[in-house]
Protein 1
Amino acid sequence: MGRVFVLVGPPGSGKGTQAELLRERFGLVHFDMGGELRREMASGSELGETIAGYVNQGKLVPLPIIAEIVGKFLRENKRADILFDGFPRSLEQAEVLDRAIEGEGELELRAVFNFVIPKEMLLERVVYRRLCPECGAVYNLRTSPPREDELCDRCGAKLIQRSDDREEVFLERYETQYEGYVVPVIQHYRKMGKVIDIDATRSVGEIFAQLEESVAQGQ
Ligand SMILES: [Zn+2]
C-alpha cells in the first residue's frame, strides 16, 4: 500500500528544502502540479489541449481538470510513497485529493506535516534576504551578511532583493494565500487526525530529523 505525505506551511517556512531532502532520503515520488500540467500539455492529449486553452488565456485551470490530473498521477504511482508539496492549496483542492486517494483504494494518507513558524520570524528571513544576480549566492543581511555592504563575497556583484521578498508583497501573499486558503486545509486535516506539527524555527537538520523519523515509521 502506497503512502501519501503532504507538506503545508507558509511561504519561506523551508518546506521546499525539506521536500528535496525527503525525496533524496526515501525516494518519494513528488507531485508538482505545474509540472504535471506542462507534461499533459506536451503529450498533445485532448486533456492537454483543454488545459492549454486555459493556460494560454491566463485563466485558472478548473477544479474538475485538477481532479483528473491528481487522479491520473495517483493511479500511475499507487505503489509508491508520494509527497505533495504546494498542493493542496485550498480546502476544495484538499477534498479533490481526499477523493482521489479514496478512489484509488491502494493508497493511504499517512501524514500532513504542518510547518509552524511565527509570522514575524518569516518576515525577518524574507525581508533581509538578498541574492547575487551573477552567481546565485543567497545572503541574509541579519543572519548571514556579506563581508562588504550588499556586495557578493564570491564575485563582488551588487546584491538584489527579489520582488516577492518585499515586505508588502510577502504580507499580501501570506494573508491571502496562506491564511485565507492554506489554514483551512490544515484545519480540515487536523479534524481527521492527520496533522503532525513541525517546529520550523529550528535548523534544517533538526527539522529533517523529525520528518525522517515519522516517514521511516511503518515503512
Ligand atoms: Zn555572486
Note: The chain has eight helices and seven strands.
Protein 2
Amino acid sequence: MKVLGISGSLNTNGSTAYAVQHALEHLMEKGVTTRYLTVAGRDITPCDGCWACRDAGVCVYGGDDMDEIVDSMRWCDALIVGSPVYFGLLSGPLKIVMDRSLVLRTGDERFEMTGKPGAGIACGGFRNGGQEMTLKCIQTWMLIHNMIVVSDGAPFSHFGATIVDDARSDELGLKTVRNMADHLQAVTARMGVD
Ligand SMILES: Cc1cc2nc3c(=O)[nH]c(=O)nc-3n(C[C@H](O)[C@H](O)[C@H](O)COP(=O)(O)O)c2cc1C
C-alpha cells in the first residue's frame, strides 16, 4: 500500500507539516510505503482555466513544480492532505495545487483518482477556528476527483483529523491524526490493496 501525504503549509516546520508526517510515520511503522510532499518552496503557476488539459491530457504549465505532485497522486493508493486554517478555510498554495490537479480529472472517462481513499488534516490556531470548514474544502476536492472520503475513524469518527495550536503538544489532535491514518489504511485494505 502506498500512501501520499501532502502538507498545504508554506511553513516547513509548522503544525501541518508535523501532523502530516506524524500520520505517515504511524503508517510506516505498520509497513505502509509512504511519500511526503509539501507545497513549500514550490513554484506552481495557478490554473487559468484554459481547459487545454481536456484535449491534450497535459497541462500547458506542465514542467513546473506541480509535476511531482501529479505524478505522486497517480502513484499513491490513498491520499492524506493537510492544511493550515486560513480565515476559516484552506491555504492559498494548497488551493492552487488542487486547481492544477484538474489534469487528473479531465472529464468523460478520465478520472484518474477514482476510488482512491482520501482524508484530511486541518491545523488551526484556535478551537472552532474553522478546522471543520477546512476539512470540508479538502473533502469536496476529493469528492470531485471521484475519490472515497474517509473520516478519522473509531473511537471518535468525525470529519477527519484536527489540530489546535501547536501540533506537537496537541495530544488529542495527534490521536485524531493516528485514528484517521488507521482508518484510511483499513478502508484501502478492504479494497484489496496490500
Ligand atoms: C493568514 C492567516 C489566517 C489564519 N486564520 C486562522 C483561522 O481562521 N482560524 C484559526 O484557527 N487559525 C488561523 N490561523 C492560524 C493558523 O491556522 C495556525 O497557526 C496553524 O497552525 C498554521 O499552520 P502551520 O503551523 O502549518 O503553518 C491563521 C494564520 C494565518 C497566517
Note: The domain at 2-190 is CATH 3.40.50.360 (Rossmann fold).
Protein 3
Amino acid sequence: MKQGLLITFACMTLLACNNQQKATEKGAIFLSEFDTPYGAPPFDQITVEDYVPAFEAGMALQSEEIDAIVNNPDAPTFENTILALDNSGSVLDRVSSVFYGLEGTDTNQEMQNIKAEMSPKLTAHSDNISLNEKLFERIKTLYDNAASLDLTPEQFRLLEQNYKNFVRSGIMLDEAGKERLREINKQLSALTIQFNNNVLAETNNYKLVIDNEADLAGLPQSVISAAAEAATAAGEEGKWVFTLHKPSWIPFLQYADNRDLREKLYKAMYMRGNNDNEFDNKALISEIVNLRLERSKLLGYKNFAAYALEERMAKNQENVYKLLNDVWAYALPQAKKEAAELQAIADREGANIELASWDWWYYTEKLRQEKYNLNEEELRPYFKMENVREGVFMVANKLYGLNFKKLDNIPVYNPEVDVYEVTDADGSHIALFYTDYFPRAGKRAGAWMSSFRKQSTRDGEDIRPIVYNVGNFTKPLADTPSLLSLDDVETLFHEFGHALHGMLSRVTYHGLSGTSVARDFVELPSQIMEHWAFKPEVLKMYARHYDTGEAIPDELIGKIEASGKFNMGFITTEFVAAALLDMDYHTQTEEQQYDVNAFEKASMDKIGLIDQIIPRYKSTYYSHIFSNPEGYASGYYSYLWSEVLDADAFQAFAEKGIFDQETARLFREHVLSKGNTADPMELYKKFRGAEPDPVYLLKNRGFIE
Ligand SMILES: [Zn+2]
C-alpha cells in the first residue's frame, strides 16, 4: 500500500472580467482552450508572469458566469443552473491546473509568492460562490423537486452533490456565521501553505556531509555514487552528501554500518518541523486543528472527523477506528516479533545495542538476507525506470487494450518529463499521459497523480483528459540509468492506477469526473495496480537486466514472492500509527493549546506503539493532513479502507486469471469509467456482485492464513 497523494483542486467551478484587457497581455494564453495538439498546455509559451493576471481573469469570468445563472429570469432548470454551474470556471480551472501542477514539481520563491498571494483570493472567491444564497435557492428548488424533473441518475447525482456541497460549505449559516467561516477558511489556507513551505525548507536545508570514506562502510556502490554526485551538485566535490529525500536516506539507513550517522540522519528526518527554529510547525498544527474544529462546530458537527467522514464510505469515526484497531491487533504483535528477530541478529553480531528506530532498516536488510538470501540491491538492475514504465503500460494493454505512444512534439515543463498518447483498443484517442519521476530541488516529496485537464462531455463533445504522474524515484547517475527499488516500483504502479482512473473516465459532467470520488474510495484503482507489479508472469514481461537485457531469473522471482510479506508488521504498524494519530487530532471536541509532542506521545502510548517504530509521519511533517485546508485530514486511514476493496477486487482476478478479460471489462466499466456518478459501494457491487470481504486484506498482509 503506497501513500502517494492524489492531488485534486477545490472545485473552483465558475466567472467575468473587468480585467480582460490586462489579461490579453499577460495571462491571455489561459483565456481559451490551448490551441495545441490535444489541447496540451503550451509550457514553452507560459511564463510565470501569466499566472496572476490569468487567476484574476479566471475569477472575474467565473463571477460573471455565476451572476448570469443567478440573474436568469427563467425558473431554475437542471440546464440553466446545475449544468451552467458545472460548465463555469473553465479559465480558472485551466490556470489552476497548470500553476498548481508546476508549483508541486518545480517551485521557487516566485511561485511560492504567487501561491501565497493568490491563496486568500481564491479562497474568498470560492466562498463567494458557495455562500451565494440566490444561487443556492435555485439549487434547493431543484433538489426539493428532483422527483418531478425527469433527471438521469448522473444528473441527479450532480444535483445532489452540489446541494450537499453548499450545505456543507455553510450556506445555511446566519450572516455572522458566514463571516466567521470566511475568516476561518482564509486562515486555514494561509496556515497550511506555511506548514507545507516549512516542511519543504526543512527537507531541502539539511545535508549530511561525509568526508571520511570509512563512514561509507556497508553502503552499496550505487548509493555511494549517488551521494558523490549529490555532493558535487552541492558544491562539496570529493565528499558524499545524503539528504532527507527518500532515495537518499532510506538506503543509508538500510546499509550504513556507522550507527551514529544512521541515528543522526534519521533524527534529522523525523525532527523536520520540530526544531524550534523559524520553520517549526508545532504552533501551526495547534491553530490548524483548532480552526478545523471551530469550523466543524459552526456547521453543526461535533468534530472535524464527523464533518469529513459524513460524505465518505466510512461515514463515521467509529467505523474508522474499528478498521484501524482491528488491523492494529494483528500488526502490533507481528511488529514485536520482528523487533525481537532484529534484536537477535544484533546480539549475535555482538553489537551490544538495544534496537532503536534508526536500526530497524539496517537489521531488516540483514534479516532479509538471512531469510531469503535476498539483497534489494541485486534486484535494482532488473528495474530500470524505463522498463518498469513499459511494464505498467503492458499491464494496461493486457487488461484494457490500451496503447501508449511516446510523443516528442508536446512541450514539457521540465526536460525530465515524458509525454505519451494513450489510445484504446480500437485506436481511438483516450488521453495524454505525462511522467515526471525524479527528485529535484523545487519538487515536493512523495508521488502523486493529477491532471491538466479532466474528462467531461460538453455540448456532445468528449473532452479527453490530460493526466500526469509525479514521483521521486532513484535518479539516473552519470554511468547508470535509474534503477528502482521495489518500493519505487510499487509506487509507480500505484500512481499509474490513479492515472487510469483519470484517463478512462467516461462521464458527462466535469464535477463527477475521474478521481473526484470519496477519499476512501479513490485508492482502489491505484492500490489494485500494485497487485500486478510483482506477479511472476508480469515480472517476466518487463523486468530485464538494464545492461544484459536478460529477463529476471526465476530464482530472483521466487525470492521476491517468498519475501512479499516480509517486514509487514513494521509496514502496517507505522501506517496505522499515523492513521490513528490523524484521527486523534480530528476527533477532539474541544479547542486546546496543543503541546504537539506530548499529544503525539500520548496518542502512541495509548495504542502501545513500541519505541523501535515511529509513525510513518510524525505531526510536524505530516503533509497529508496539514498542508492543505482539508487534504487527507481525518483521511489517512483511507488507504487501508480502500485496501479492503482492492484486496477483495484483486481476488476476482486471482480466481479467474490476472488478465481475465471479463473481470477487467467489469472493473473498467463499473469502477474506472464511472467517476463519482454513483455511490461508490453501489459501483463496487456492480463490479464484484457483493460487498468486499475484509479477510483478503488480512491474508495479503500475512496476518492470517
Ligand atoms: Zn494514492
Note: Residues 104 and 444 are 6 Å apart (CA to CA).
Protein 4
Amino acid sequence: MITDHAFAELGLPVDASEQEVKAAWRRLVSQWHPDRNASAAAVAKVQRINQAFEAIRRARQQPEAMAEPVAPEPEPAAPPAADPGPQRPPIRRKIKLTLEEAAAGCIKPVRGKLTETCTTCDGAGHQVLGGNCASCGGSGAIQQRSAWFGWPSVRIECEACLGGGIARRTCPTCDGACKCEVSYEVQVRIPHGVRDGDLLHVDARRARAGSAPADLEIQVQIAPHALFQLHDDGTVRCEVRVNGFAWIANRTVQVPTLAGAQTLQLNRDLQTYLLQGQGFPKERRGARGDQVVTIVPVFPHKLSTDQDIMLDQLIAASSDAREAQPAAKARGRKRTTG
Ligand SMILES: [Zn+2]
Ligand SMILES: [Zn+2]
C-alpha cells in the first residue's frame, strides 16, 4: 500500500506523528470491529485499516513502535518516509551486443528475479480473519503479572493482534515477510542504431505472460569488433588484406560488411573503396552511414621460380615496363637479340 493512501485511510495528514497514527488506528479498529459493527464491509474495512497502519509503520522503519513504553516518553517526530510513488523503481540491467546486432536491431530476452510487495496480504504480512483474537479475547491487551510480589499487574498490548482485538493470521504466501521474490522475463526489442552506453527503458507491460511486470532500464554495451571501427557519423572502417596479384589483375574479392560478406571489384588504381549505405545507422532507427574498405595488397615475400618466370614474361610483354627494365636484364636481352 502506498504510504499516502495509508494516511488517507486513517484520515490523517502525511506528517501525522506516531502517536496520532496509533490513536487514529485504535479508534478506527474499535469503530469497525466486526463484534461492534454489523456492517458487511466491517472485516474488509478493518483489514484496510490494519494494512494502512502496517504500511506507515514499515515506511517509518519503526518496527518496535507498537510496544507501548512502560513510562511513555515523548517520541521524536519521525521524518516522513519517502513515498515510492505509484511507479516501481526500474531494474537496471546491462545488455551486451555485437556491432552487427546493434546495427540491425534485435530482440534479447532479459530474465531475473525481483522482490516486491506480497500481493496476497498487500504487504501487511498478515491477513485479518475477523472474530476475536484468541490470545486476548478481543480486548487487545493482556494482563501481565508483575515480577515483584505485591506490585499490581500491568496491561500490555496483545502481540497476536497488535492491540486491535481481531483475529489475524500470518500471511501464508510471504510468511509474514510482507515481500515475495518473483521472476520476470522481458523480450527487449533493441532498435537498430543503438550505441555503446545508450539507456533503453522497457515498460513493465512488455513482460512475458506469467512474469512479474518489470520496468527495466537497460544499458547497452557493444563489444569491440575484430574488424570494424565505428565512427560517430555511422561510418564503419575496415582494412582487408587481399592477394596483391588479384589487386593488380582487377579481380573481385569478398570483403566483410555488417550484413555479411560482399563481393568487391578491385581496381589496381585504388586502395580505398566506399560501400555506400553499408555502414552503421547514423542515429537510432536512422539510415545507415557508409563503409570504407581499405585494401592492403599482399605479395609473397619470396617468389617461387615459376612466379619469377611469369613476372619476367609480364615485364617483357609490357611495353611500358620495357622502358623501365633493370640494366642487367636489358643487357641480357640485347645480347640475345643482337
Ligand atoms: Zn489479541
Ligand atoms: Zn503476504
Note: The first strand starts at residue 91 and ends at 97.
